[in-house]
Every structure is written in structure tokens, then in C-alpha cells.
Write a structure and sequence with these properties.
Blueprint: H1 12-27, H2 32-38, H3 47-54, H4 62-72, H5 77-86, H6 97-103, E1 104-111, H7 122-128, H8 133-142, E2 155-161, H9 162-166, H10 172-184, E3 190-195, E4 208-213, E5 218-223, E6 228-231, H11 234-250, H12 254-269
Parallel strand pairs: 1-2, 2-3
Antiparallel strand pairs: 1-4, 4-5, 5-6
């Protein structure tokens, strides 16, 4: 389940920075696309990222602000704003994770109990969302990032605990269709690996996803019963990266994973 959007809880300092940033951009007569091409010393970012900065939905890096200060001819004023408004700001815990997915260069996910939302079938999602068709449609729209043309889709690695294949959601028909969907997933930028069930690794603490953004930052997402949490604290991310290394060392290769998924679909859910 993804966190609900709540404009009232947007960071006021990030929003203030974004408004000033937009004024600088508009004073140059640039579109978001034009500004995006000039970011990060010419390496560029996506126009969506510029939009997120301007609406207070992301905390940009000092390096990004430094390049744009030079491009805008702001003579250090944008860096002063970054120090005052962005430096100590953090993503609120409810942060709108789909907007992070949309602008990520890479997503690495570990699923302990359920299929990741980006790989769910409509029927599987409908069970988990208690029949809320609007929420199901929104989840299906999120999946469009995997097949979009521009910008290119993020590279996605989905590490799935073996128990996910065995845990019934809805009924056997829904499960069979869901596993068949998983077996077809490894195409293009997507890979799926199954992690054999064991209780002696850090992944048993819970599911999580790490996004690498086009400004080189990392943001993680974890879920609780009440809400989803985004975080970019270095200690938290270090712990998650350590867990990922341990999980990956136990994961089956992609071809063996797909064979197991297909076999489970036929033997357990047919």
C-alpha cells in the first residue's frame, strides 16, 4: 500500500526553495526541459525532477544547486537559499513514493510477504486493496514506468522471498495468474530473483525498496501497518545496503528463479 498524497504536509522550506528556483528559471525564459539539460554540470536530470524540486517534493543536493546557481547567474544566492531552506530539510515520513519511482534511475526491492506493487496483476492488487477499484487503477498506472519510452524505464531488480510464491492471495486462480506474470517479468530493464525461504538473514525483518535518483541520491521506502515511510538517513541506508548484500548472496540466479516460479504456479496453484 502506498502513502496517500497530502499537500498540506509538504515541507514548507522545500516548497519555499522550489518557488524561488522556479522564479530564477522563468526569469531565464527556460522550460523545465531546458533547465533539466543544464543540471549536474551538463549531465542533466529529467524534467520531472525539476518539477519535483519546484513543488517541494524532493530535497535536491548541494551539487545540483551549485550548478543551477551558475546557470541562473544567481551569484551564490541559490546556494544561500539551499543552506537556509534545504540543507537540514528531510523527506516527511509519508512522502509520495510513486513520484520517487517515476524519477528513479534504478530500483532495488526486497519483498518478504507479497508481490511488489509494480509487478502485481489487477486481481491480486484488488484483493490487497479490498476491492477499491480506484486504488487498483492507480497501482496499475504506476506500472507504466516499466514500459515507458521517455524517459527510459528505471533498471529494476526485484528480490522475492520464496514464501511470496506460496502465500495465497485471493484464490488459486489469482495466484496462478500472478506467478505467470512474474515469470514474464524479466524483460528489458527488469530482473526477478527468488530468495529461498530461510530465517537467518536480515531480509526477514521486512520488505523495502531503495531508489537511486538521477542526482545520485538514494532514498528508501519501507511499510508499516499505518503508513509507508521514506528515508534517506545514511545510517538507515547503510543497514539496508548490508541487508541487500546478504539477500542477494542467497538469491537464485534469474533463470533458476523463473523455473521455480513456473513450477510453483503449475504444481501448487493449478
Amino acid at each position: 500500500m502506498t502513502p496517500r498524497r497530502n499537500r498540506a504536509k509538504v515541507s514548507h522550506t522545500l516548497l519555499a526553495f522550489g518557488r524561488r528556483f522556479r522564479k530564477y528559471r522563468e526569469a531565464k525564459g527556460w522550460s523545465q526541459e531546458n533547465a533539466a539539460k543544464r543540471a549536474n554540470n551538463g549531465q542533466g536530470v529529467t524534467p520531472q525532477y525539476i518539477g519535483m524540486v519546484e513543488t517541494g517534493r524532493t530535497r535536491c543536493t548541494y551539487e545540483f544547486a551549485e550548478t543551477m546557481d551558475q546557470e541562473f547567474g544567481a551569484e551564490g544566492a541559490l546556494l544561500d537559499l539551499w543552506d537556509d531552506l534545504v540543507k537540514d530539510a528531510a523527506f516527511p515520513v509519508w512522502f509520495d513514493w510513486p513520484s520517487i519511482e517515476e524519477t528513479a534511475d534504478e530500483l532495488v526491492s526486497y519483498s518478504l510477504s507479497l508481490v511488489h506493487g509494480l509487478l502485481q496483476t489487477p486481481d491480486y492488487a484488488k484483493v490487497l486493496l479490498y476491492g477499491d477499484q480506484e486504488a487498483v487503477d492507480a497501482r496499475m498506472r504506476r506500472q507504466e514506468i516499466l514500459v515507458r519510452k521517455e524517459p527510459p524505464p528505471p533498471g529494476c531488480t526485484f528480490l522475492i522471498d520464496e514464501g511470496v510464491l506460496l502465500r495465497e492471495v485471493g484464490n488459486p486462480k489469482i495466484m496462478k495468474e500472478q506467478l505467470e506474470r512474474l515469470a514474464l517479468a524479466p524483460e528489458g530493464s527488469v530482473s526477478v530473483q527468488v530468495v529461498p525461504m530461510r530465517g537467518d538473514h536480515l531480509g526477514n525483518i521486512g520488505s523495502f525498496t531503495i531508489a537511486n535518483l538521477d542526482d545520485l541520491r538514494e532514498v528508501a521506502y519501507v511499510e508499516s501497518v499505518a503508513r509507508g515511510f521514506t528515508m534517506e538517513d545514511s545510517d538507515d541506508l547503510s543497514t539496508m545496503r548490508r541487508a541487500l548484500r546478504e539477500i542477494r548472496s542467497r538469491a537464485l540466479p534469474t533463470n533458476m528463479s523463473i523455473d521455480l516460479i513456473r513450477r510453483t504456479a503449475e504444481e501448487r496453484w493449478s
